[in-house]
Amino acid sequence: MTRAQPYNRDAAIDAAMTLFWQKGYHATSLKDLEGALSMKPGSIYAAFSSKENLFNLSLERYFTSNRDEFRKFMAAADTPLTGLANFLRKIGAPNHDDPMRRACMLVKSLLNTTSEDGAITRQISDYLSMMEAEMAAVFEQAKHIGELCADADTATLARRFQSDVTALKIEAQRQVDPAILAASAEQRARQIIALRQS
Question: Domain total for the chain?
Answer without folding.
Answer: 1
